[in-house]
Amino acid sequence: MALSDFMVTLADRTMTWVYEKSNGRIGSRLGKMGMLVLHTTGRKSGEKRSHTLQYMPDGDNYVVVASNGGQDRNPGWYHNILSDPHVHIQIGSRQLTALATVAEPEAYSQLWPRLIAQNSVWETYSRRTTRKIPVVILKPLG
């Protein structure tokens, strides 16, 4: 069973609040996984939105998964980056400007097995939903 919207939103907001208030001292790791805060601009509202996400380093880039807890629709932040791919990310206390791109099929096929090896829950989520869970590459700028 997929997590409810309420639970996903509550967990995300709580984790983001703690991460930001502690300047990344609390919340930058979840088990073996690194965590980052992704700052986007709402595509409809124009307001700043923040979400804490697990990430996988890939060279100079950071890779995140638009799993939305296995729900049948993509998370709001994914739609925001499609509208405006210029984002800010916080990793620990570091603040970076980045460009978000959706992994093309070739990159996806290379990244997905590595992501699953790092966190098998994404494979479970992919079986729960009819959508193909997007993989997003965050490329730091400057």
TrEMBL record:
Lineage: Bacteria, Bacillati, Chloroflexota, Ktedonobacteria, Ktedonobacterales
Similarity-based family: Belongs to the F420H(2)-dependent quinone reductase family.
Superkingdom, taxonomy of origin: Bacteria
GO molecular function, one term: coenzyme F420 binding
InterPro entries per the UniProt record, alphabetical: F420H2_quin_Rdtase, Split_barrel_FMN-bd
Catalytic reactions of this protein: oxidized coenzyme F420-(gamma-L-Glu)(n) + a quinol + H(+) = reduced coenzyme F420-(gamma-L-Glu)(n) + a quinone
Protein name, per record: Nitroreductase
NCBIfam families referenced in this protein's UniProt entry, alphabetically: hi_GC_TIGR00026 (TIGR00026)
An annotated GO cellular component: plasma membrane
